[in-house]
């Protein structure tokens, strides 16, 4: 049956996906990195709102014209629905009132969460897995990394830094480390944790000659990720190789062998960490955590942040205190080297802990359940062309870095787009 309105809604969705993977990462606004969070948030919010309105109107027109479209509801859709409902209940019950809608200067309130849900449902029900999306992310990440290379050479090609400064003035002239078109190097690492596995796995499995060229931006992504010197990125990549490696193999026997090998490497790695002899560095900190010791200074003071975050979560365990309220509750601060200003903690630096604090146990449980449901989808669909295994690998890497990450709207919308594509109903 011909469904012209549905086809038009899918056409609009296709353009939205290309926009979010190919243009959104490169948009930096017009006021440098200082206003980067706001610029990217409004880009994402307006683009999502316009797309949802147009696609929704087309579907309504199709319904009135007699078109029938019944998208398949997967378990992940139900889990995300519970997650969104938990956030809404938490916001309604919060003592912080309307602050929960936008979430302060981090733009992490319920409005942002709801837009993520719109992306997930819209992309999964109207989107189709297409090769062009991989190339869009490959092109945007290559441009982002090319700009980062110039910045590492002390240049400022787009005038992002304060006047007379460059990348190496980080934490001296300005209170952060900015690189590429994303901004904060931790957020840049999150973006590259999405791009590098997607490009690598797709290029390896595609079988098409031209798709091998995707190894080039993937290599550039990995190089800049190393230059960022963000431990979360290194841990995420290692975890991605161990978890996603066996799943991406197309032959069942090879996958089982690789799975056993990954399990063995993991156990050997844990054993090595347990007996690690060093007294400093990432491996030392991981070793201490295995022994039950989480010092305040571990993970760039994440130890201190997580311990206070856990205490704050236990004050409101069921509903949390509302989306976007994490930054209002921390009382951790340091004297910054930049003009001896005071730096305040505004984020849990762990997406999952942030959900616990903001929307409570039920909200986080629903989010984790959605991840689990999509993991099953990924495994079941790993032989349906090269895109599904690549999408799963990208999301695994991203979700691992989320354990140490900020989870802001500078990068998260792209993850939700890929998550929706993994759950698409049509080939």
Entry summary:
The strands form two sheets. This protein has a two-stranded antiparallel ribbon.
Describe the structure.
This protein is mainly α and 427 residues long. The protein has one domain (4-249, 369-422). 64% of the residues lie in helices and 2% in strands. The protein is globular and about 65 Å long. The model has no long low-confidence stretch (mean pLDDT 92).
Task: Report the average pLDDT across residues.
Answer: 92
Roughly what fraction of the amino acids lie in strands? under 5%
H/E series: HHHHHHEEHHHHHHHEEHHH
User: Structural class of the secondary structure composition?
Assistant: mainly alpha
Shape: globular
> Portion of residues in helices?
55-70%
Q: What is the radius of gyration computed over CA atoms, rounded to a whole number of angstroms?
A: 22 Å
Distance between the termini: 18 Å
Number of strands: 4
Q: Major sheet: size, sense and barrel closure? A: 2 strands, antiparallel
Number of domains: 1
Q: Order of strands across the biggest sheet?
A: 1-2
- Which residues sit in consecutive blocks of at least 5 with pLDDT less than 50? none
By DSSP (H or I, 4+ residues per run), the number of helices equals 16
List keywords for this structure.
mainly alpha, single chain, two-stranded antiparallel sheet, 16 helices, two-stranded antiparallel ribbon, 427 residues
Task: Please outline the helices and strands.
Layout: H1 4-22, H2 36-64, H3 75-93, H4 99-102, H5 110-126, H6 131-152, E1 178-179, E2 183-184, H7 185-206, H8 215-228, H9 231-248, H10 252-274, H11 282-290, H12 298-315, H13 326-329, E3 333-335, E4 342-344, H14 351-380, H15 387-401, H16 412-422
Antiparallel strand pairs: 1-2, 3-4
Helix pairs in contact: 1-2, 1-6, 2-5, 3-5, 3-14, 5-16, 6-7, 6-8, 7-8, 7-9, 7-15, 9-10, 9-15, 12-14, 14-15, 15-16
């Amino acid at each position: 049956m011909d469904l012209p309105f549905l086809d038009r809604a899918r056409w609009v969705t296709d353009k939205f996906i290309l926009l979010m993977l190919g243009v959104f990462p490169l948009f930096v606004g017009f006021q440098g990195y200082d206003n980067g969070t706001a610029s990217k948030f409004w880009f994402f919010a307006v683009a999502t709102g316009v797309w949802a309105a147009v696609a929704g109107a087309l579907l309504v027109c199709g319904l009135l014209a007699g078109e029938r479209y019944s998208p398949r509801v997967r378990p992940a859709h139900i889990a995300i629905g519970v997650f969104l409902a938990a956030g809404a209940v938490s916001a309604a019950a919060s003592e912080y009132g309307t602050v929960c809608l936008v979430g302060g200067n981090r733009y992490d309130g319920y409005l942002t969460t709801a837009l993520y849900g719109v992306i997930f449902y819209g992309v999964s029900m109207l989107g189709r897995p297409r090769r062009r999306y991989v190339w869009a992310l490959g092109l945007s990440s290559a441009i982002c990394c090319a700009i980062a290379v110039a910045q590492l050479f002390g240049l400022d090609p787009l005038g992002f830094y304060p006047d007379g400064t460059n990348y190496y003035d980080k934490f001296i002239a300005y209170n952060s480390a900015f690189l590429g078109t994303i901004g904060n190097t931790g957020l840049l690492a999150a973006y590259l944790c999405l791009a590098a596995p997607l490009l690598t796995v797709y290029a390896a499995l595609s079988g098409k000659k031209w798709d091998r060229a995707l190894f080039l931006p993937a290599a550039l992504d990995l190089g800049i990720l190393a230059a960022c010197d963000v431990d979360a990125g290194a841990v995420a990549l290692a975890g991605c190789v161990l978890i996603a490696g066996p799943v991406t193999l197309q032959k069942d026997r090879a996958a089982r062998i690789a799975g056993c090998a990954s399990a063995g490497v993991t156990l050997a790695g844990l054993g090595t960490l347990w007996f690690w002899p060093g007294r400093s560095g990432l491996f030392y900190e991981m070793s201490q955590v295995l022994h039950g010791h989480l010092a305040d200074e571990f993970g760039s003071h994440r130890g201190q942040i997580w311990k206070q975050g856990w205490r704050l979560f236990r004050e409101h365990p069921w509903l949390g205190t509302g989306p976007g309220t994490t930054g209002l509750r921390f009382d951790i601060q340091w004297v910054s080297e930049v003009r001896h200003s005071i730096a305040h903690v505004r984020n849990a630096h762990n997406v999952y802990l942030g959900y616990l604090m903001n929307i409570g146990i039920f909200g986080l449980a629903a989010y984790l359940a959605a991840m689990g449901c999509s993991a099953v989808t990924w495994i079941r669909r790993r032989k349906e062309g090269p895109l599904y295994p690549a999408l799963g690998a990208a999301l695994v890497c991203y979700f691992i870095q989320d354990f140490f990450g900020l989870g802001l709207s500078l990068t998260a919308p792209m993850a939700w787009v890929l998550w929706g594509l993994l759950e698409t109903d049509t080939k």
